[in-house]
Amino acid sequence: MFDLMQSVLLIFIEVMCCKIFYETFGKERYKGWINVIQFILLLGSVCLLAFGFSNNFVIRQIANILTLSVFMLWHVKISLKKSFVLAILFDALLLAMDSLVFLIMGWLSLDTKITDQQHKIASVLAYLLVKVILFLLILVIRKQFAKKSMEKMLDTEWLRFLFFPIFTIAAISVMLSVFEYVQTIEQANLLAVIAFGMVGMNIIVFYLINDIVEREIKMHENKVFQIQAKSQLEMYKSISENFDNQKRKTHEYKNQISCIESLLDKKQYSKLEEYVKKIYGSLNNEPDAINTNNVIVNAILNTKYQEAEAKGIVFVFRVNDLSELTIKDEDVVTILANLLNNAIEACETCEDKKVIRFKFVKEDDMIIIAVKNTFNYDVVYENGEIKSTKISNVDEHGVGIKNVLKIIEKYGGAYIIEDKNKEFYFSIIIPA
Question: What is the pLDDT of residue 7?
Fold first, then answer.
């Protein structure tokens, strides 16, 4: 009975490794109890194949590959072809590990004369050793090709995490070195329980750390969403205020036209001339200096123009008719708000030259958005890509640039980022 339990536990470890292996290359289809049901059914199927076709190696391997392909296709969001290829790769890993077991057992048998009881415990320990090695290989594969949970781990954290499987490999190796001193079944069973317990702890630690990292990712994404929502809310608030001002101006213009008509009817030309000059002077003082024939763009640019002017920043711009802009309003807000906010904050740190050059034009079936601004600190890059143009809260501020890049990709556009001579340049080209 204990031997059967050991065999089932070894298959359980293999299935867990298979699950982790597949989850490296795809996202789980379902959450909750359905995953447990999938795992139990897969474990039962693999056990039946292992015990039912123990004397027919070829049929067992083919059936095992097909079973893994079907169940993992059900478990992970991947194509049937990819699932089949991964099943073949995983089965090849298992065969390589089994070959390693035979090598270890051959070495042990040649090295000393062992009894049947010692042979059994040595065999179990050898299988557990290679299962941990398999687990370690899958972790390395996961690190290289993995989803966010592993990418978020720093190298130092990753090395600490690898301590568990490496320590287990070392511990089981030590057990193998002293297995010949096992004299009773109780001693053999104790060694097996300890070894299985250590392997099980590796799997538990893996999922605990994975859950913690994924929870941190969700918290970070929620924080990012709040930052983005706050930024867009402020921009939409400015746009709303701009609309209110426009309504107020329209009402005032109606009153002014009525007054002009009244003065014309009464032929009071001197008063009319004086009144028109007064209106003209007030129009010159209006804050809306930029007009692109696009209400959203106007609201953003005029708001940022006023903000830059209040901070002593020279705002040079070139725009044309954007009335037929194909970019969605919310995407326009994200691009302009992030780029101009970054530019204004960068210029604020400059002691002398504070200049923003901005271009937003539609020409030759292309939309061109470019921002060039002065700055006096280092631009932060990560993996060859820009992470932030700010000196504080780098992780948060990098989100804005990433959001802009996602929108560029969404519309099939391209971008150029340069920084030289203390000037930062961000240019975007999007098909109109």
Answer: 85
Please state, rounded to an integer, the average pLDDT across all residues of the chain.
Answer: 81
Whether the Cβ atoms of residue 374 and residue 290 lie closer than 8 Å to each other: no
Q: Give the per-residue pLDDT at 391.
A: 42
State the pTM of this model.
Answer: 0.57
What is the β-pairing status of strands 380-382 and 385-388? antiparallel
Q: State which residues of the chain have pLDDT below 50.
A: 383-384, 389-397
- C-alpha distances out from residue 337 to 18, 224, 297, 302, 303, Å: 46, 15, 10, 12, 10
Q: What is the pLDDT of residue 187?
A: 81
